[in-house]
Amino acid sequence: MLDKIFKTIEKILPKKYRWILNHEGFIKYFKNTGWMFLGQIFSLIVAFFVGAYVARYLGPKNFGLMSYAISFVGLFGFLAGFGVDGILNRELIKFPEKRDELLSTSFWIKLLGGFLAILAVNTISFFANNDYLIRLLIFIFSLSFIFQSFNIFNLFFQSKVLSEKGVKAQIISNILSAIMKITFIYCHLGVIYITSLYIFDSITLGIGLSSIYYKKEKRLPLFKIDKKLLISLLRDSLPLMFSVIAMTVYTKIDQVIIKSMLDEASVGVYAAAVKLSECWYFIPGLICGSLFPAIVNAKKINQDFYEKRMTFLYSLLVYLGLIIAFVVFIFSKPITLLIFGQEYIEAIRVSRIYAWSIIPTFIMTGFWYYLLNENYTKIYLIITAIGALSNIILNILLIPHFGIIGSAYATLISYSLPPFSLLLFKKTSNQMKLFFKSVIFYKLNN
Q1: Is the dihedral of CA 369, 371, 372, 373 positive or negative?
Q2: Measuring CA to CA, how many Å separate 192 from each of 15, 115, 195, 198, 373?
Q3: Taking a C-beta distance cutoff of 8 angstroms, is the pair 206, 150 a contact?
Q4: What letter would DSSP give residue 148?
Q5: Mean pLDDT of the chain
Q6: Degrees, nearest 5: CA angle 427-431-437
Q7: pLDDT digit string (tens) for 282-303?
Q8: Rounded mean pLDDT, 228-237
Q9: Residue 445: what pLDDT?
Q10: Dist. CA 40–CA 368, nearest whole Å
Q11: Average pLDDT, stretch 96-124?
């Protein structure tokens, strides 16, 4: 299937750019990205329509309760990962000979973080929420932290440009999850049972990734912990963990604040609107994750080649983000009414504003991979902190006056600040020049 797509692109691409398609490295990364894209598109379609079916079934109030629980738990995701994922991906590419030690050490770091995250989120939930149902939903969803440690195998596949391996596990997990959710709704089960399926999702994905890795490598490297490597990973990932805290706050805090200042139904309507935009957020991560090995290797060759690849990446992200944002803005009304129903009509205005946050999100993903490759994790921490702080302040100021519309504006503004904050630092100001060059689609040469 990917070969057919490749041939189609070759036909429609202008002749002056066809040289790219004959480049061995490009073909390799194109196919890898293609697998990731096809897998994510499949998962997106399944998750979006099943999620909309769940939203219709639960109604704005119960859907709001579940969305609030997910957002609340998400605020503690930084503990479950310790910021290790980004460092692990980089280290697997640079030091493939240390694969077993890297995977094993990272697994136990993430597993310990998962248990700490469960303890932290439920302790704070006990004091922050008086509603027993909300506490229960938060507890149920928090259990998924344990199984996120198996994501190390997916990162291994990405580092080896073998993303089709992880995609297979993801597709199987999504199919099983969709079947279970539809079955639960058919049996008229409530929000507690629906929420419990998120644990099922994590378990099936973890089993799938582990099985595929074992089938390929004939072993699971889970008991080769290297103490020196552990200290090194924690030292390098610590700034990233704080960055994840800031990132999590400014992507999850809006629904938590809406719940505290308005009500559960408002959270449900807002969550439905957000889905129309957030369902596209996988694209920049997919593209950058697949091309990250090429970016790392380009820097080893020479700086000029490295900058050309970064410029091409920025150009791709900018124009894709612009196109998708425009499509979501135009079709938000018919999609909302068709998929979610009349109960969610207030989500239309929110989704039209929120749609434009797609552009800075795409851009920031590219910058994140650049900062990771350059080991500018402290700069990333600062700019994400700027975004998080601005999101909290703007939500508090705007929600009392404009309701969930105010929260959408707060998100759009706060998402737009971090990318341009790179101009504040001498080390990264040159990267902004590359970004502005990318807007006019700078041609990448050999």
Answers
A1: positive
A2: 57, 22, 5, 11, 42
A3: yes
A4: G
A5: 80
A6: 155
A7: 788 778 876 777 777 777 777 7
A8: 77
A9: 44
A10: 20
A11: 86
pLDDT above 90 (res 103): no
Q: What is the pLDDT of residues 378-431, one digit of tens each?
A: 888 888 888 888 999 999 999 999 999 999 999 999 998 888 888 888 888 777
Identify the burial level of 119 via C-beta atoms within 10 angstroms of its C-beta, where 0-12 means exposed, 13-18 middle and 19 or more buried. Answer: middle
Local structure of 220: helix, strand or coil? coil
Task: Mark out the alpha helices in 262-357 (DSSP H runs).
Answer: 264-278, 282-301, 303-339, 347-354
What does the pLDDT read at residue 29?
55
- Please state, as a whole number, how many other Cβ atoms lie within 10 Å of the Cβ of residue 154: 24
pLDDT at 344 over 70: yes
Q: Are 317 and 363 in contact (CB under 8 A)?
A: yes
C-alpha separations of 197 from 176, 207, 255 in Å: 10, 15, 21
123 or 371: whose pLDDT is higher? 123
CA angle at 182 for the pair 181 and 184, rounded to the nearest 5°: 65
Alpha-helix residue ranges (DSSP H) falling in 75-190: 77-81, 84-94, 99-128, 132-142, 152-159, 163-186
- Residue 87 pLDDT exceeds 80: no
CA distance 169 to 163: 10
AA letter at 270: Y
CA distance 118 to 73: 9
Within 8 A by CB and 6+ apart from 71, the residues are 252, 253, 254, 255, 256
**What letter represents residue 167's amino acid?**
V
Report the distance separating Cα 100 and Cα 325, nearest Å: 41
How large is the angle between the packed helices 358-373 and 404-420, nearest 10 degrees?
Answer: 30
